[in-house]
Amino acid sequence: MREVVTELFERYEREFNAALAGEPDLEAISRLYDDVFIAATPAGVMTGQNDEELKKVMTAGFSHYRDIGTQRMEVRKIRVEPIDELHAIARVDWRAVYIVGGGEKVIDFTNAYLARLKGDRATVFGWITGDEDAELRRHGVIE
Hints:
Radius of gyration: 15 Å
Number of helices: 4
Protein backbone atom coordinates (compact mmCIF):
# COMPACT_ATOMS: atom_id res chain seq x y z
CA MET A 1 0.00 0.00 0.00
CA ARG A 2 2.77 2.46 0.89
CA GLU A 3 4.38 2.04 -2.52
CA VAL A 4 1.12 2.58 -4.41
CA VAL A 5 0.17 5.68 -2.40
CA THR A 6 3.70 7.07 -2.71
CA GLU A 7 3.52 6.59 -6.48
CA LEU A 8 0.19 8.47 -6.49
CA PHE A 9 1.84 11.53 -4.97
CA GLU A 10 4.86 11.27 -7.24
CA ARG A 11 2.40 11.49 -10.17
CA TYR A 12 0.55 14.30 -8.36
CA GLU A 13 3.76 16.31 -8.07
CA ARG A 14 4.68 15.72 -11.75
CA GLU A 15 1.24 16.67 -13.04
CA PHE A 16 1.00 19.74 -10.80
CA ASN A 17 4.36 21.03 -11.99
CA ALA A 18 3.50 20.37 -15.63
CA ALA A 19 0.32 22.39 -15.12
CA LEU A 20 2.32 25.22 -13.55
CA ALA A 21 4.51 25.20 -16.66
CA GLY A 22 1.35 25.81 -18.67
CA GLU A 23 0.91 22.27 -19.89
CA PRO A 24 -1.89 20.79 -17.77
CA ASP A 25 -3.04 17.32 -18.71
CA LEU A 26 -6.50 17.53 -17.17
CA GLU A 27 -7.25 13.89 -17.96
CA ALA A 28 -4.11 12.73 -16.13
CA ILE A 29 -4.80 15.08 -13.23
CA SER A 30 -8.41 13.96 -12.91
CA ARG A 31 -7.23 10.32 -12.76
CA LEU A 32 -5.50 11.22 -9.47
CA TYR A 33 -8.92 11.67 -7.86
CA ASP A 34 -11.76 9.29 -7.13
CA ASP A 35 -15.20 9.73 -8.72
CA VAL A 36 -16.45 11.65 -5.65
CA PHE A 37 -14.34 13.41 -3.04
CA ILE A 38 -14.51 15.43 0.15
CA ALA A 39 -12.42 18.44 1.12
CA ALA A 40 -12.05 19.97 4.57
CA THR A 41 -10.51 23.41 5.04
CA PRO A 42 -10.90 26.16 7.62
CA ALA A 43 -13.67 27.53 5.35
CA GLY A 44 -15.72 24.34 5.80
CA VAL A 45 -16.32 20.94 4.31
CA MET A 46 -17.38 20.38 0.72
CA THR A 47 -17.93 17.48 -1.59
CA GLY A 48 -17.34 17.32 -5.30
CA GLN A 49 -17.41 15.07 -8.30
CA ASN A 50 -14.66 14.18 -10.71
CA ASP A 51 -16.36 15.68 -13.76
CA GLU A 52 -16.08 18.51 -16.28
CA GLU A 53 -16.74 21.07 -13.54
CA LEU A 54 -13.69 19.81 -11.65
CA LYS A 55 -11.60 20.28 -14.79
CA LYS A 56 -12.83 23.89 -15.09
CA VAL A 57 -11.96 24.53 -11.45
CA MET A 58 -8.52 22.93 -11.90
CA THR A 59 -7.82 25.07 -14.99
CA ALA A 60 -8.71 28.23 -13.07
CA GLY A 61 -6.70 27.08 -10.07
CA PHE A 62 -3.53 26.44 -12.05
CA SER A 63 -3.92 29.81 -13.76
CA HIS A 64 -4.23 31.45 -10.34
CA TYR A 65 -1.11 29.68 -9.06
CA ARG A 66 0.85 30.86 -12.11
CA ASP A 67 -0.49 34.41 -11.65
CA ILE A 68 0.77 34.59 -8.05
CA GLY A 69 4.23 33.42 -9.04
CA THR A 70 4.14 29.73 -8.15
CA GLN A 71 7.19 28.09 -9.73
CA ARG A 72 6.99 24.54 -8.46
CA MET A 73 5.64 22.19 -5.84
CA GLU A 74 7.93 19.58 -4.34
CA VAL A 75 7.01 16.57 -2.26
CA ARG A 76 9.45 16.55 0.63
CA LYS A 77 8.10 13.57 2.56
CA ILE A 78 5.13 11.20 2.45
CA ARG A 79 3.89 9.31 5.49
CA VAL A 80 1.30 6.65 4.72
CA GLU A 81 -0.91 5.34 7.52
CA PRO A 82 -3.07 2.40 6.40
CA ILE A 83 -6.64 2.45 7.67
CA ASP A 84 -7.57 -0.96 6.26
CA GLU A 85 -6.56 -3.01 3.22
CA LEU A 86 -8.09 -0.47 0.78
CA HIS A 87 -7.72 2.94 2.47
CA ALA A 88 -4.97 5.10 3.92
CA ILE A 89 -4.19 8.57 5.20
CA ALA A 90 -1.22 10.13 3.46
CA ARG A 91 0.41 13.08 5.18
CA VAL A 92 2.35 14.88 2.50
CA ASP A 93 4.97 17.50 3.33
CA TRP A 94 5.12 19.95 0.44
CA ARG A 95 7.50 22.74 -0.46
CA ALA A 96 6.02 25.50 -2.61
CA VAL A 97 8.38 27.87 -4.41
CA TYR A 98 7.21 31.30 -5.57
CA ILE A 99 8.80 34.26 -7.32
CA VAL A 100 7.57 37.41 -5.62
CA GLY A 101 8.98 40.87 -6.21
CA GLY A 102 11.99 39.44 -8.02
CA GLY A 103 12.90 37.12 -5.14
CA GLU A 104 12.18 33.54 -4.27
CA LYS A 105 9.79 32.63 -1.45
CA VAL A 106 9.63 29.11 -0.09
CA ILE A 107 6.69 27.84 1.95
CA ASP A 108 6.67 24.41 3.57
CA PHE A 109 3.33 22.91 4.59
CA THR A 110 1.62 19.58 5.19
CA ASN A 111 -1.70 18.34 3.84
CA ALA A 112 -3.49 15.14 4.78
CA TYR A 113 -5.07 13.11 2.00
CA LEU A 114 -7.48 10.20 2.08
CA ALA A 115 -6.44 7.60 -0.48
CA ARG A 116 -8.20 4.53 -1.79
CA LEU A 117 -6.68 1.58 -3.60
CA LYS A 118 -8.27 0.80 -6.97
CA GLY A 119 -6.58 -2.23 -8.45
CA ASP A 120 -2.87 -1.50 -8.72
CA ARG A 121 -3.33 2.28 -8.32
CA ALA A 122 -4.50 4.66 -5.64
CA THR A 123 -6.75 7.71 -5.92
CA VAL A 124 -7.43 10.66 -3.65
CA PHE A 125 -10.96 10.72 -2.26
CA GLY A 126 -10.41 13.49 0.25
CA TRP A 127 -8.05 16.05 1.66
CA ILE A 128 -7.67 18.17 4.77
CA THR A 129 -5.77 21.44 4.47
CA GLY A 130 -4.89 24.51 6.45
CA ASP A 131 -5.72 28.10 5.49
CA GLU A 132 -3.76 28.49 2.26
CA ASP A 133 -4.64 32.16 1.69
CA ALA A 134 -3.61 33.12 5.24
CA GLU A 135 -0.28 31.37 4.76
CA LEU A 136 0.30 33.05 1.39
CA ARG A 137 -0.48 36.45 2.96
CA ARG A 138 1.83 35.76 5.91
CA HIS A 139 4.68 35.08 3.46
CA GLY A 140 3.89 38.10 1.27
CA VAL A 141 2.88 36.05 -1.78
CA ILE A 142 -0.60 37.63 -1.92
CA GLU A 143 -2.10 40.67 -0.25
